[in-house]
């Protein structure tokens, strides 16, 4: 860069010195924005457009046909299976969101306010990211020998005489799904909340104490309001991840529970692409509505 | 509102860890309704002292009394003090009314009443027109007024200010300084103000407390401190003084003679602690020195000009001489012009014995 910048004046030094710098052509800003625009267009807008188009196509057991039918939507929205699956998905969203918010907030709170040196903060934060060194699937599978019918936890409980027979609900149940999701997604809540908490000026907390606030009042009136942007960003991560999840649900519930993502995955495996696309569009709309709701409550741009 | 409290510090000590002493057994009485400035270089313990009075720092040993109450171990909110923080520490997520009403909200005052009282307080500070703004939308001076309003809404008996003017530009500093003084007179509350600016302390304080290394070097009225600095540290820190030091070589009815290590000797007035052979220090005001040969030996010397600065109205001439370093003279412009001095030239200086002030030996 600098080489080019230095070379340029030397090249024109023979010519009469230009009076002022040439104005950039009016389309220059668009040119500068083009690389990102191209990437987003090719990898985000185009696939979504394809899904929307396919969702109106017709299909049978062997083939899909270009057409314009609203049958896919009528079928999916008119079926009670869709609605109960949706309800189940939303139940997972609500439970996992609440637990990750609770866990994430207090982990972030501990890191930000109780760990004194920033070196130690960074170190502990890196420890939090260690599970990410392995893939989602492996982290999920590692629960099996622990929670299984003859797994570590059950044999320990039985041998200690705490329970008479192995607990059945530990694995291949909704409990297992929620547990695995909380395990997988908590860090997405910790990180943004931690970032907002460390930026809170400590003198604000002293000022609140000076004004007579007790610990809970400081938390409720100062820390949580100032952590809102982080909570919102973390919530967006967790909610979108849980809404789109199908592998955790399939694996940890042992096929006994369903989610929108799983339904779409099943339809794809049956080659019912248009039906899957219609469900995907419905799910996308749901995600967008939730994001809009979060952004309505917390103005992230203003706080950042 | 005029129920100011006397603040009494009794051998107050603050240690961080085992050997880092921030405040070393200080005792001080600040009378009710006094404007007190804690003055000193950074790290002298002035902020720790203020924070202990406020209750934001635990006391290692000693006691703090506010009026008739020993508050040493009380939490900040039960001390009837209020603190204004250095960076104001306004809540960025609340508008001005809610910022000022914060302590009332913590006490459980109903919303309508606390907002009305907060607005009243903002009116007193002349910033009620911005009541619905957030702190980030205000200038530094306006933010300070909000911080003051927030600190005063609890009707404290003492207001504690931690470098309140340091974030302001010089022009605003002077204006807000006057406002602070006016407010203190109006409310009659005890103010304790931490600062590292001599000028600020002199302009505001009824009682200046100069601290160094966790101890009080001198506490007194600003004029007293300026005219009669107790120690060499005070004389140097307040500026405007030259410090002469040496060993006492002779004592007589008029005073004593001290000899600097390199031969120069000076005459100083008598003081009870002077003894032959002991080190002694004395201060001479920079603006009481005249250029010219001294009539009496020991009340002047000849040095070489090292630096000349124009101060507006007078010249600041810095000289070096054997045994005397950094000796500064404020010479009247006219007196200077009679015989302008170039850098490196020798200049004779003289002063009167009455303008020499003997300093106490530094305790540590």
Explain this structure to me?
Chain A: It is a multi-pass membrane protein. Chain A: This is ABC transporter permease. The complex is a heterodimer of chains A (304) and B (364). Chain A is mostly helical. Chain A has one domain (80-302): MetI-like fold (Orthogonal Bundle). Chain A has helices spanning 2-11, 28-54, 71-78, 80-114, 118-129, 136-141, 144-147, 152-159, 174-198, 202-210, 215-244, 247-253, 260-269, 273-297, 300-303, and strands at 58-59, 64-65. Chain A has a two-stranded antiparallel sheet. In chain A, β1 and β2 form a beta hairpin. In chain A, α4 packs across α11 (215-244), α9 crosses α11 (215-244) and α10 crosses α11 (215-244). Chain A is flat. In chain B, the strands form four sheets. A six-stranded mixed beta sheet of chain B has the order 6-7-8-3-9-10, with helices on both faces. In chain B, strands 13-12-11-14-20 form a five-stranded antiparallel beta sheet. By secondary structure, chain B is an alpha+beta fold. In chain B, β17 (314-321) and β18 form a beta hairpin. In chain B, α4 crosses α5 (140-152). Chain A binds chain B through residues 201, 203-204, 206-214, 217, 221-222, 225-226, 228, and chain B through 54-56, 75-77, 82-83, 85-87, 89-93, 102-103, 105-107, 150, 154.
Number of helical segments of chain A? 15
Assembly state of the chains shown: heterodimer
- Can you tell me the CATH topology of chain A? MetI-like fold
Strand order, biggest sheet of chain B?
Answer: 6-7-8-3-9-10
**Strands of chain A, count:** 2
Counted by DSSP, the helix tally of chain B is: 10
The averaged pLDDT of chain A comes out at: 86
- H/E topology pattern of chain A: HHEEHHHHHHHHHHHHH
CATH superfamily of chain A: MetI-like
Total count of strands of chain B: 20
Low-confidence stretches of chain A: 1-13
Structural class of chain B: alpha+beta
């Amino acid at each position: 860069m600098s080489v080019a910048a230095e070379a340029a004046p030397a090249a024109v030094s023979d010519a009469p010195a230009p009076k002022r710098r040439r104005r950039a052509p009016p389309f220059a800003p668009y040119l500068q924005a083009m690389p990102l625009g191209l990437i987003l267009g090719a990898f985000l807008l185009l696939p979504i457009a394809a899904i929307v188009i396919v969702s109106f196509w017709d299909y049978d057991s062997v083939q899909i046909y270009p057409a314009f039918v609203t049958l896919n939507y009528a079928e999916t929205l008119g079926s009670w299976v869709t609605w109960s699956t949706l309800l189940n998905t939303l139940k997972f969203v609500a439970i996992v969101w609440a637990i990750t918010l609770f866990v994430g907030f207090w982990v972030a709170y501990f890191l930000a306010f109780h760990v004194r040196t920033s070196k130690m903060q960074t170190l502990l934060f890196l420890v939090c990211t260690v599970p990410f060194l392995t893939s989602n699937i492996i982290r999920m599978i590692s629960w099996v020998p622990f929670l299984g019918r003859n797994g570590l936890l059950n044999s320990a409980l039985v041998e200690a005489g705490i329970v008479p027979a192995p607990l059945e609900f530990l694995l291949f149940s909704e409990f297992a799904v929620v547990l695995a999701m909380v395990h997988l997604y908590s860090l997405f809540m910790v990180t943004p909340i931690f970032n907002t908490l460390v930026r809170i000026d400590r003198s604000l907390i002293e000022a609140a104490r000076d004004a007579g606030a007790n610990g809970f009042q400081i938390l409720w009136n100062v820390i949580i309001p100032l952590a809102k942007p982080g909570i919102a960003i973390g919530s967006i991560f967790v909610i979108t991840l849980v809404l789109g999840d199908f592998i955790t649900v399939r694996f940890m519930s042992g096929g006994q529970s369903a989610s929108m993502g799983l339904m779409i995955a099943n339809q794809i495996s049956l080659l019912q692409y248009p039906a899957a696309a219609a469900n995907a569009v419905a799910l996308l709309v749901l995600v967008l509505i939730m994001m809009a709701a979060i952004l309505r409550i917390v103005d992230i741009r203003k706080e950042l | 509102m005029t129920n100011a409290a006397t603040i009494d510090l009794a051998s107050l000590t603050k240690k961080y860890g085992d050997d880092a002493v921030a405040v070393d057994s200080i005792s001080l009485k600040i009378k009710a309704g006094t404007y007190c400035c804690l003055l000193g270089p950074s790290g002298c313990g002035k902020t720790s002292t203020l924070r202990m009075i406020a209750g934001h720092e635990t006391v290692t040993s000693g006691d703090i009394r506010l009026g008739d109450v020993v508050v040493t171990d009380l939490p900040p909110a039960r001390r009837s003090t209020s603190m204004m923080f250095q960076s104001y520490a306004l809540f960025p997520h609340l508008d001005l009314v809610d910022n000022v009403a914060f302590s009332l909200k913590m006490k459980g005052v109903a919303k309508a009443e606390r907002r009305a009282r907060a607005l009243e307080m903002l009116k007193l500070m002349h910033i009620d027109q911005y009541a619905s703004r957030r702190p980030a939308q205000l200038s530094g001076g306006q933010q300070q007024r909000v911080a003051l309003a927030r600190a005063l809404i609890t009707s404290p008996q003492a207001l504690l200010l931690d470098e309140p003017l340091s974030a302001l530009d010089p022009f605003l500093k002077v204006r807000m300084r006057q406002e602070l003084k006016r407010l203190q007179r109006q409310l009659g509350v005890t103010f304790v103000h931490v600062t590292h600016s001599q000028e600020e302390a002199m302009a505001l304080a009824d009682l200046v407390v100069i601290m160094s290394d966790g101890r009080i070097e001198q506490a007194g009225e600003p004029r007293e401190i300026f005219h009669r600095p107790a120690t060499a540290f005070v004389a140097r820190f307040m500026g405007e003084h030259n410090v002469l030091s040496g060993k006492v070589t002779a004592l007589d009815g008029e005073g004593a003679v001290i000899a600097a290590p390199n031969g120069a000797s000076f005459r100083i007035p008598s003081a009870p602690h002077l003894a032959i052979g002991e080190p002694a220090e004395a201060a001479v005001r920079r603006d009481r020195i005249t250029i010219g040969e001294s009539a009496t030996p020991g009340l002047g010397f000849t040095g070489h000009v090292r630096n000349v600065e124009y101060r507006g109205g007078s010249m600041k001439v810095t000289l070096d001489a054997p045994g005397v370093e950094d000796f500064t003279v404020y010479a009247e412009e006219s007196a200077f012009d009679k015989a302008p001095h170039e850098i490196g030239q020798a200049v004779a200086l003289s002063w009167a014995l009455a303008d020499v002030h003997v300093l106490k030996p530094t305790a540590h």
